[in-house]
Amino acid sequence: MCGIVGYIGNRNSLPIIIDGLKHLEYRGYDSAGVSIINSDKKIYSFKKAGKVSIMDDAIDKDFYTGSIGIGHTRWATHGVPNDINAHPHFDMYDNIVIVHNGIIENYKYIKTRLIEEKYTFITDTDTEVLANLINYYFRKTKNFEKAVRMALIEVEGTYGIACLCAEEPDKIIVARKGSPLMLGIGNGETIVSSDASAIINHTKNVVYLEDGDMAVLTKQGFFLKSVEDKDIFRNTEVLDFLIDEIEKGGFDHFMLKEICDQPETIQNTYRGRINFETGVVKLGGLEHVMDKLINAKRFIITACGTAWHAGLVAEYMIEQFCGIPVEVEYASEFRYRRPIIRTDDVMISISQSGETADTLAAIREAKKFGATTIGVVNVIGSTIAREVDAGTYIHAGPEIGVASTKAFTSQLMSLALITLMIAGEKKTLPDKTLIEIAQELKNIPEKIKHMIDMREEYKKVAEVFKDTKNFLYLGRGYNFPVALEGALKLKEISYIHAEGYPAAEMKHGPIALIDEYMPVVFIAPKDRTYEKIISNIEEVKARKGRIIVVASDDDEQISSYADHILRVPTTLPIFAPILNVIPLQFLSYYIAAARGCNVDQPRNLAKSVTVE
Ligand code: M6R
């Protein structure tokens, strides 16, 4: 949510900052801006509502040539997205300029106090308040570092900040609390960013800041201290992804690339973690909590959005194969409802970004009560990955499209591996079944590839429905969460209203919506609920609904019920969601593309939701 880039070194900072902002744009794209310290040691700012490219086209590149600068791409929280509310923000004396991710919760109180001190404001943002607060302390101390420290101690809420000071124009000060920030360590230069994708073009060596960390960057390097002025040390880590992974690679959109990447990403999730001959799974990051896992009285799964749907699938898997009760919670609800948490509970938190504020808060709540916390996370080194007691990375690689696709299938694969590992240890599954599952797991990438090769078939169905106003998605058992995910994918990128339901629930309300205009997508593989789903299809057919069915390759009977069929290869129920969601990803992608929607950056959304 919002992206920060800053550069200090010997090169022209503007192109580096703009390139970084373009890589960060998936985090927010309401407005963008930069502040550069030119060779006259003065700070010059430029900002524009809209995408980074609008700012990039409008800025005078011959003028902004300094080698120290900060930039921001915004997802609005306080104040409408316009030029004025765009970051960076100056204090009223044009001394401090700041870019900020997060929310200053007590900004109104601080603003009132500053107004009493004769400070004036020109924007509606909490960030401008912080710039003025830093300046307020700068006027008292005449020391930039001290002023930032004193201001941050007063602030309640979350922040990742980078700021410059006109009176100390040789440095950038950065700090974080609840909003990610990292330093890229180059040769004679430092790049600060909220996300590794803005750094990877320049260096692979990074230092992840932790909550409460502050760093002062100069051309000579940087030093780290806590906001409370205590010495701290952070290791330098090496980024493990390739530049290609954050480029479109010839596809029209990142989303399409990421859908098509799934044969490889799924393989990356399980590679080296399962023995196909014995069915034994080893997940290194969970080994030291194995006792907790097999003796857990209950699993609580917390997540948001797509990751929550993956959690719902895991509920079916873990209860069926491990015999341990599972509760799946929206992280945002869990944190505020005084949940009962015991020390023998294990919380599994699922998050692509590893930065989702609500999921992180749920983990902190569980830790407070002594539960064991486990992360199923994509972004390496993210806050959730670092705060949980143990975890497993899904290894899906950077996901840039705002609509999650490859992360979802890799989350499902990771959760299947966790399930098999626990079932193997607890002996809740016969070896024969474990081996059978492991053998089928090996076939999954090839089966996904088969669907990718026939994506034109899915596209034909999408073209029929591109002007539809509403959609229903229905599934049962393992495929009920797939129905939810299919509906979420469609609504977030095409803005078509869509709902997912357990198929049998239809009779309890949604059936009233069915008429000849309503497309209903049934997820109906040949499993033990097949006959039931066929009855549900008949009910819709009787009311003239338009029937689209995700059906097994070998299901011949289905053509007598369906108006359109999205074929999927057959598999075991535990892997069915991984395959069945893929035609739904394509359906939503092609519908959105046909409607001319901005598929990778849908309106109002941000890739990682680091505010409540
Ligand atoms: O990064 P996370 O997995 O924690 O994000 C959770 C949701 O915000 C995310 O899945 C969101 O729903 C996506 N836009 C879905 O496509």
Protein topology:
Blueprint: E1 3-8, H1 13-24, E2 31-37, E3 43-49, H2 52-58, E4 68-74, E5 89-90, E6 96-101, H3 107-116, H4 126-141, H5 144-154, E7 159-165, E8 172-177, E9 182-185, E10 190-193, E11 205-208, E12 213-218, E13 221-226, E14 237-238, H6 254-260, H7 262-270, H8 290-294, E15 298-303, H9 305-322, E16 326-330, H10 331-334, E17 345-351, H11 357-368, E18 372-377, H12 383-387, E19 390-393, H13 406-426, H14 431-441, H15 444-453, H16 455-464, E20 470-475, H17 480-494, E21 497-502, E22 519-524, H18 530-542, E23 546-552, E24 564-568, H19 576-594
Parallel strand pairs: 15-16, 15-17, 17-18, 18-19, 20-21, 20-22, 22-23, 23-24
Antiparallel strand pairs: 1-4, 1-10, 2-3, 2-4, 5-6, 6-7, 7-8, 8-12, 9-10, 9-11, 11-14, 12-13
Helix pairs in contact: 3-4, 4-5, 7-13, 7-15, 9-13, 9-17, 13-19, 15-19, 16-19, 17-19
The structure holds 5-amino-5-deoxy-1-O-phosphono-D-mannitol.
Verbal overview:
The chain has 612 residues and is of the alpha/beta class. The protein folds into 3 domains: 3-239, Aminohydrolase, N-terminal nucleophile (Ntn) domain (Glutamine Phosphoribosylpyrophosphate, subunit 1, domain 1, 4-Layer Sandwich), CATH 3.60.20; 248-453, Rossmann fold (3-Layer(aba) Sandwich); 455-612, Glucose-6-phosphate isomerase like protein, domain 1 (Rossmann fold). The strands form 4 sheets. The chain has an 8-stranded antiparallel sheet, with helices on one face. Helix 11 links the parallel strand 17 and strand 18 (372-377). Helix 9 runs antiparallel to helix 17. The longest helix is centred in the C-terminal third of the chain and has 21 residues, at 406-426. It starts with a strand and ends in an 18-residue tail after the last helix. The model has no long low-confidence stretch (mean pLDDT 93). Bound molecules: 5-amino-5-deoxy-1-O-phosphono-D-mannitol. 5-amino-5-deoxy-1-O-phosphono-D-mannitol binds at residues 304-307, 351-353, 356, 359, 402-404, 492, 605, 608-609.
